[in-house]
TrEMBL record:
This is L-fuculose-phosphate aldolase. The lineage of its organism: Bacteria, Bacillati, Actinomycetota, Actinomycetes, Propionibacteriales. It comes from Nocardioides marinus. PANTHER family: 3-OXO-TETRONATE 4-PHOSPHATE DECARBOXYLASE-RELATED, FUCULOSE PHOSPHATE ALDOLASE. Pfam families: Aldolase_II. Keywords: Lyase, Metal-binding. Its EC number is 4.1.2.17. One of its GO terms (cellular component) is cytosol. InterPro entries: Aldolase_class_II_sugar_metab, Aldolase_II/adducin_N, Aldolase_II/adducin_N_sf. Residues 5-179 form the Class II aldolase/adducin N-terminal domain. GO terms for molecular function: L-fuculose-phosphate aldolase activity; metal ion binding. GO terms for biological process: pentose catabolic process. It comes from the Bacteria.
Length: 211
């Protein structure tokens, strides 16, 4: 499969997993020095390789005749500038977005959240596609592989499309968990010491590295 086909397949999976409805999200993947991104206004459930646009690292489309890249291009390029990520997924997933309409931070109630780096910050609200939104998301992502976006959605990055997508799914699961736990009573969060112990235990077991 070409890089374009892989990105389109990941976009369709994001829709199939219920992380987006219609055009509410976008994805990108690095291809050499360039970045492949979904075009703006694409229904991700029907995304094909023709809906993928190649841009240079400064965001200039490689093919001026091609469709416009996603309106969140500044966000995607900013993440690549700040991290060693190879793929970025932005979604309007229901539980993540609900939490991002209420909280300023998703605390660590379940230790699996440490796979995303710790408490998940909620980037301040800014109009979609603006440099302000991209800047807020970039700082919310510091030391994290995922962030929430106030009154908007979520973003996750990884060393592959698969990993970025799994992280967006994990954040969605954690957001739903927080909602359910809060409905039962005050949420008991892990102390910093408990979080540290989890990281040490995972390192000792090489958790997540089958080889
Ligand atoms: C208005 C857009 O839906 C915006 O919310 C953006 O964040 C989004 O998810 C889809 O924009 P594109 O279709 O331009 O990728």
């Amino acid at each position: 499969m070409s890089g374009r086909e892989q990105l389109a397949a990941a976009a369709r999976r994001v829709a199939a997993e219920g992380l987006v409805v219609g055009t509410g999200g976008n994805l990108s993947v690095r291809e050499g020095a360039d970045v492949l991104v979904t075009a703006s206004g694409v229904d991700l459930s029907r995304c094909t390789a023709d809906d993928v646009v190649a841009v240079a690292p400064d965001g200039t489309p490689r093919d001026p005749e091609a469709a416009a890249p996603t309106s969140e291009l500044p966000l995607h390029l900013g993440v690549y500038a700040d991290t060693d990520a190879l793929a970025v997924v932005h979604v309007h997933a229901p539980w993540s977005t609900a939490i991002a309409c209420v909280l300023d931070e998703l605390p660590v109630a379940h230790y699996q959240q440490l796979l995303l780096g710790g408490p998940i910050r909620v980037a301040p609200y800014a109009t979609f596609g603006t440099p302000e939104l991209a800047a807020g998301v970039r700082s919310a992502l510091e030391g994290r592989s995922a962030a929430l976006m106030a009154n908007h959605g979520a973003v996750a990055h990884g060393s592959s499309l698969e990993q970025a997508l799994e992280r967006a799914l994990l954040l969605e699961w954690l957001s739903a968990l927080h909602h359910r736990a809060s409905a039962l009573g005050p949420v008991r969060t892990l102390t910093e010491e408990q979080q540290h112990e989890v990281v040490l235990a995972a390192l000792a077991r090489h958790y997540g590295s089958p080889a």
